[in-house]
Design a protein that fits this description.
Radius of gyration: 19 Å
CATH superfamily of the largest domain: NAD(P)-binding Rossmann-like Domain
Number of strands: 10
Bound molecules: acetoacetyl-coenzyme A
Strand content: 5-15%
Strand order of the largest sheet: 3-2-1-4-5-6-7-8
CATH topology of the largest domain: Rossmann fold
Length: 295
């Protein structure tokens, strides 16, 4: 049994909106904080779209959708999160921005509030050590799309209180997820394995091994992956992959985590994947078409 009743979510982008949705669906009163009114409107629309899709598919009753939306409160103020039992941070992968927010919340929230970060690649220690509550700070790493992917990595630092860790682990189950315990090293379990795989696929493309489509086809039809590596890179976001790789390279100093030149170039030109309609594929037409990257 978890004592958590109210949840705060920082950021309502791709990950934050998914986390807010499953939290409210699980019955928690959920506060969602975004930087400004435009981002609040975008976040609210993301959640509504996802819930509407579930209603259209007959997976969710429209009354339940309204109840779920009714449990969500959007705000631009960090102070509104003062009474939540757990804060889950899902803002941009910038340690200064994250630590600034946690710094404010450290003064605003009660001393029992648990702080959690959905970081993909930073260590939890880098945030927890900057607060006055390192013993109440965990990692809660979800996967995209959050409402669909069953896994959550619950990250244990060397400083966390074991009851807080257990409580958070149980909380993850109440969100309908399968938690696994991971140690606090950059990338945790999934990205430790997935990021070098995606970077290797880019290196294969740079070296002219095969075409974008054929590498994707090989990994879907040859190994049963739901998406090929380039479709997955575009799905995760080319910019996001680049930042994750940089942080992991910084942590391990191993070349397998180093972003390949092609990835850098794509970031320079704003080829961020699906979100900009252009990455390894062009998404402006009816079907994705591989982009000519000059290889
Ligand atoms: N929100 C809610 N539901 C969604 C969704 C979304 N954004 N996208 C898809 N779904 C649902 C659909 O409604 C559908 O549900 P039903 O089967 O119940 O009808 C189901 O998911 C399957 O969707 P589709 O039929 O449209 O498409 P699909 O079969 O191709 O599946 C996918 C889509 C689930 C994304 C699948 O391709 C997949 O699993 N891809 C791999 C995703 C992955 O690897 N994610 C991890 C990325 S790494 C990460 O997130 C960590 C990090 O730190 C970078």
């Amino acid at each position: 049994m978890t004592k958590i009743r109210t949840v705060g979510v920082l950021g309502c982008g791709l990950m934050g909106s998914g986390i807010a949705e499953i939290s409210a669906k699980a019955g928690y009163d959920t506060w969602i904080r975004e930087l400004n009114d435009d981002l609040v409107a975008r976040g609210r629309a993301n959640v509504a779209k996802s819930l509407d899709r579930a209603v259209e598919k007959g997976k969710l009753d429209s009354n339940v959708r309204d109840e779920v939306l009714g449990r969500m409160r959007f705000t631009t103020s960090l102070e509104e999160l003062k009474d939540v039992d757990i804060v889950i941070e899902a803002v941009t992968e910038d340690i200064d921005i994250k630590n600034e927010m946690f710094g404010v919340l450290d003064g605003v929230c009660g001393e029992r509030t648990i702080f959690a970060s959905n970081t993909s690649s930073l260590t939890i220690a880098a945030m927890a050590a900057a607060t006055n509550r390192p013993h109440r700070f965990v990692g809660l790493h979800f996967f995209n799309p959050v409402p669909v992917m069953k896994l959550v990595e619950v990250v244990r630092t060397i400083a966390v209180d074991k009851d807080v860790f257990r409580e958070t682990f149980e909380f993850a189950k109440t969100l309908g997820k399968e938690p696994v315990e991971a140690k606090d090293t950059s990338g945790f379990i999934v990205n430790r394995l997935l990021v070098p795989y995606m970077l290797d696929a880019i290196r294969c493309l740079e070296q002219g091994l095969a075409t974008t489509e054929d590498i994707d086809k090989s990994m879907t039809l040859g190994t049963g992956y739901p998406m090929g590596p380039f479709t997955l890179c575009d799905f995760v976001g080319i910019d996001t992959l680049y930042y994750i790789a940089e942080i992991m390279f910084e942590e391990f100093r191993e070349t397998r985590y180093a972003p390949p030149p092609l990835l850098r170039r794509m970031v320079s030109f704003g080829y961020f994947g699906r979100k900009t309609k252009r990455g390894f594929y062009d998404y402006s037409g009816e079907k994705p078409v591989a982009v000519d990257l000059g290889i």
